Amino acid sequence: MWSVEELFGIDSLLSAEEREIRDTVARFGERRLRPHISEWFETGTFPAREIAPELGKLGLLGMHLEGYGCAGASATAYGLACQELEAIDSGVRSMVSVQGSLAMTAIWLFGSEEQKQQYLPRMAAGELIGCFGLTEPDFGSNPGGMRTRARRDGDDWVLNGSKMWITNGSVADVAVVWAYADEPGSDKPRVRGFVVPTNTPGFSAREIDRKLSLRASITAALDFDDVRLPADAVLPESRGLSSPLACLSEARFGIIFGALGAARDCLTTTIDYVRSREVFDKPLAAYQLTQAKLADMALELGKGQLLAIQLGRLKDRHEISNEQISAGKLNSTREAIAIARECRTLLGANGITLDYPVLRHANNLESVLTYEGTAEVHQLVLGKALTDANAFR
Ligand SMILES: Cc1cc2nc3c(=O)[nH]c(=O)nc-3n(C[C@H](O)[C@H](O)[C@H](O)COP(=O)(O)OP(=O)(O)OC[C@H]3O[C@@H](n4cnc5c(N)ncnc54)[C@H](O)[C@@H]3O)c2cc1C
User: Fold this and answer.
1) Ligand 1: distance of its center to the CA of 165 in Å?
2) Where are the transmembrane segments (predicted)?
């Protein structure tokens, strides 16, 4: 029997080191995470404190960053690690994305040398957990509308406002918070990033419960009530909305690979299932309708993997554009959720339980389709690239 990777000759496109990283992360996921994941999903928990140091030990936190205790791996290797983590659950990959691609990347790109020394090595080791606060209750796709404000009071900053849907928010030690900040010599505030220790008075986080998606991931609402920060809490190199958007591009890149990991897990589970499930006196696998579904899913998964590797290569050469990342994020998430749902049909009633991963993945992928730019937002990015006409407003 062929795997999708074999059908598309995927391994021939990867270096020995990339395959080794992929396989190491896959083994960790199967050993350490797979046995617990359905229980975490069912109870709506994720033991971030316990798992983060183990992810750190494997070099998966801030994996693509150089220096400060980070692994300095290639973009493609980072993508493959995301793929294997998301094959377990999108929640695990979200934790790693937010820590490495969002919170650590913000400090790495826009922080002072002191901020980098203070936070990055401990975040890379998983000793400190970070979160990234951009979205607000009323501003998700349009973060430029944000109402969170940082005003100057002497040398200090005073932060007021709120953030919503923040991954790791209620377990984080440190939050990177984006706010309109007073600009010297201007009456127009500008978006800037702030490094906020979560034990600062006035900072509060409330976990969002009753989620039907990404249940094995911590999501929180943050409130800032006169949070007083020292002058050096600002990320000095952050200037305008393009700064958080640069971090989002990094996280989106991981999703291009990650979502396909979830899809692959659905497909391999389903192939196993249909080979042993008998309907009308023969295995479900031997029906043409089943095979048509499997063939179509294998094609989309394989094409997605080829695109992901191509984008990985472009990123490794520092040649990738935001439009190309949008194309990959849109394709991977859309096809992954379609595969997860189609797999669920083949599992029949068994597919609706946590005994199999497919509906868990499908539900998770609803969030993955929405965060880091919704599918529609990426269609608009591509539409603008193709026509030069801006249809956002
Ligand atoms: C589980 C989870 C974790 C998250 N983690 C984080 C995090 O760690 N940090 C963080 O900052 N945010 C996080 N988010 C927030 C996420 O980034 C936002 O949900 C996302 O940007 C969409 O914003 P919204 O939910 O406000 O939807 P809206 O912006 O209100 O969009 C609603 C609908 O309108 C559509 N739409 C929007 N604009 C247009 C337009 N111009 N034209 C046509 N249609 C449009 C959208 O595509 C969507 O279908 C998380 C979200 C989830 C679900």
Assistant:
1) 9
2) none
Helices 322-347, 288-316: inter-axial angle, 10-degree rounding: 160
Ligand 1 geometric centre to CA of 153 (Å): 33
Atom of ligand 1 nearest to the CA of 217: 1
Q: Is the CB of 101 under 6 A from ligand 1?
A: no
Q: How many CB atoms lie within 10 A of CB 125?
A: 18
Select from 1.10.10.10, 3.40.50.970, 1.10.540.10, 3.30.390.30 the CATH code of 4-129. 1.10.540.10
What are φ and ψ of residue 6, in 5° steps? -70, -40
Residue 374 Cβ contacting ligand 1 at under 6 Å: yes
Helix (H, G, I), strand (E, B) or coil at 130: strand
Q: Which pLDDT value is given to residue 239?
A: 93
Q: Which residue has the tokens 């199999």?
A: 356
Mutate to test the pocket of ligand 1, among 46, 163, 165 (most ligand atoms within 8 A of CB): 165
CA quadruple 274, 276, 278, 284: dihedral, nearest 10: 20
Please report the pLDDT score of residue 139 as a whole number: 98
Number of H helices, E strands in the chain: 13, 9
Which ligand 1 atom minimizes the distance to the CA of 138? 26
* 376 classed as catalytic: no
**Is the CB of 141 within 6 Å of ligand 1?**
yes
Bridging pattern class, strands 203-207 and 219-229: antiparallel
| Percent of the chain at pLDDT exceeding 70 | 100
User: What is the third-level CATH fold of 131-233?
Assistant: Butyryl-CoA Dehydrogenase, subunit A; domain 2 (2.40.110)
Q: Is the pTM of this model over 0.90?
A: yes
167: enclosing H helix or E strand: strand 156-167
Three-state DSSP class for residue 224: strand
Regions of the chain with pLDDT less than 70? none
Enter the DSSP assignment of 206. Answer: E
C-alpha span between 37 and 354 (Å, rounded): 10
Kindly name the residue from 86, 136, 250, 372 that is annotated as catalytic.
Answer: 372
CA distance 351 to 365: 16
The domains of the chain are located at: 4-129, 131-233, 242-387
Output the six-digit token pair for 265.
């897990």
